[in-house]
Structures are given as structure tokens and as C-alpha cells.
């Protein structure tokens, strides 16, 4: 009986459409942890700060169910944050953090208010990539308790587990401690008003990554891979995991796709070619862009100058700009109160 009820509930929830994304809340991964116990419905609704109107709509849809005594909706949101996106990779070293920083930078240049949460507990290096040295994180007192204040660099708000840990010491958090730190980290940062919060996820499909996905209102992930078969296989596993927990995969970015010859401009695919395209076709997730190997990406990361903010045109800067434009056309609301400055 519960399964039949469950299906009935899902069918009704699929009739609730998120107007900007023009899709139903189930397909968008906004409804999770749906349970029916003794004819009571419990669900978690993962939304942005501008989507609270979905709650009464759900209540009204589910009120048609004659057997349902009451619906309890737990809202999961990050105060002030409209759109939370995850940047993920199957394995380390493929350029995930570089991509997260550059997408944040490109969105900022498009006029969005952007925050970057470095949740890569195994290698938090976002602060360095934006030129932040060791800084003291301030804690402020708010009506909802003590909160960490993010740092601001190049117009981007930044918070990193690396800023909380001691420098040069590997983070060896495990199990419940890891879980507690991550959830505190997701809930206790005072971001202010943000159009986008990008979360740099730890690589792979381990505990830390699953905790972050389950505890935050991520409404889509971007996956970063290199063209090699082994990296592609890792990303494939990753995509299956996201689909299992109901988080939409927005697309794939292939990094280190080719090397441009400084003399003749020819492109050499030194890590093989076609991996990203093959994966995108197989898993029906768009290929958002192909980024070449470019020493300026590496030096920009080392000196805190993301290539997406460089004044010089480059194929990499172009890819990040295009991704930012396409994210804006997907996620930005078009009424006055939410327009970009
Ligand atoms: P991950 O977050 O996946 O572990 P990083 O973003 O830290 O990977 O990148 C690993 C290293 O590779 C960094 O030194 C970075 O500057 C460099 N890198 C990443 N992408 C490129 C690229 N397209 N061209 C040149 N260097 C790159």
C-alpha cells in the first residue's frame, strides 16, 4: 500500500512546476527523503531563498489525497542563497577547484553575487587560488546563533575548510566528526545575499561528498573530467551517484582537452581525445566546454588570478564566460527584485 501511496504522491508532486527552470520539482531534485508513515507524508524540500512559494503549492496539491492526514515539509535552504551548484569530479587532480574558481569568477564578471564554498575536505586549496593567505575567520553573533563570516576577494565571498584548519596539516577528519564539521560548515556561514553559491565538492563518491549533497540544497552539479579513459570511468560512477540521490547533472566540462602549440597554434590532444564527448552522449548530459592545457591557468591559480578574470582573451576564458552566460540564462529570475546589478 505504501508503495502505491508513494507513487500517488510523486505523481502529484510532479505537477508542481518551478517557474524559472520550467520543470517539475521532482525532476529538479528538490524533493528528497519522501516517507509515508501512518498516512502522514514527510518530505524534505531543497530550495533557494527565492523559492519558498513552492511549499504552499505542494501542501495544496497533496491536500487532494483523501487518505493523507497531514503533510510535513522540512525546508532545506541556505539563508540568502538563491542557487547552489556543486562542482565535482571522479578523482583528484583533474582541475575541479580550478574550474570552480573560474566559473565563480566568470559569474562575478557577468554581474552576479557569488559565493564559493571550498568543501574539498581532502585538499582545500581555493583560498590560495584566489590569492588569500592564511586569514582569521571572524565569527559573528546573529539571531540564529554564531556564524562564520566569509572572506571577500575579487568580489567573491569565500569560505574554506582550509581556512579553519591549521596550515600545512593534512585534514584527517573521519566519520561522525567529518559529518559534523561539514553540516556545521553548510549551515553556519553568513553569506548575505547571493545569486550563486558554488560548492567545490571533495572528489569521488565517499562519505564527505554524500553528506554534503544530502545536507545542502544543491540544485545541480557540474562534473569535471580529463579526456583519459580512467578519469572518464570515475566520472561515470559519480554521475550515477548523483542520479541516485536525485541531484540533476547540469553537464560535463572536459579539462586539459588539448595543448595549443605556441608556434603554429595546432592542437595536440595529449591525454587522448573524445572522452568528454563520449561520456556526454552516453549519459545524456551536455558537454559544457573543453578547456585546453594552458600554463596561464596554472600560474593564475598560483598567483590568485583566475584566467576567467584575465584581461587577455584565451580559449579557456571564453569557455568559462560561455558557461556563466548559460548558467545565468537557466537560473536567473527575470523579475525586478532579482535582476543582476
Ligand atoms: P583538483 O581540484 O581536481 O584536484 P586542481 O584544480 O587543484 O585539481 O588542479 C590541479 C593542478 O592542475 C593545479 O596546479 C592547476 O593549476 C593545474 N591545472 C588545472 N587545469 C589546468 C589546465 N587546463 N591547464 C594547465 N594547468 C591546469
Automatic annotation (TrEMBL):
Domain of life (superkingdom) = Bacteria
The chain positions of domain MIP18 family-like read 7-60
Q: Which GO terms describe its biological process?
A: iron-sulfur cluster assembly
UniProt xrefs under Pfam families: FeS_assembly_P, ParA
Chain residues that bind ATP: 90-97
PROSITE patterns, alphabetized: MRP
Gene Ontology MF terms: 4 iron, 4 sulfur cluster binding; ATP binding; ATP hydrolysis activity; ATP-dependent FeS chaperone activity; metal ion binding
**Record SUPFAM superfamilies:** Fe-S cluster assembly (FSCA) domain-like, P-loop containing nucleoside triphosphate hydrolases
Entry keywords, A to Z: ATP-binding, Hydrolase, Iron, Iron-sulfur, Metal-binding, Nucleotide-binding
Among InterPro entries, the record links this protein to: FSCA_dom_sf, MIP18-like, Mrp-like_CS, Mrp/NBP35_ATP-bd, NUBPL-like, P-loop_NTPase, YlxH/NBP35
Note the coiled coil stretches, chain numbering.
Answer: none
Q: What does this protein do?
A: Binds and transfers iron-sulfur (Fe-S) clusters to target apoproteins. Can hydrolyze ATP.
The family annotation for this protein states: In the N-terminal section; belongs to the MIP18 family. Belongs to the Mrp/NBP35 ATP-binding proteins family.
Q: What does the subunit comment say? A: Homodimer.
Q: Report the HAMAP family cross-referenced here.
A: Mrp_NBP35 (MF_02040)
Task: Write the protein's name.
Answer: Iron-sulfur cluster carrier protein
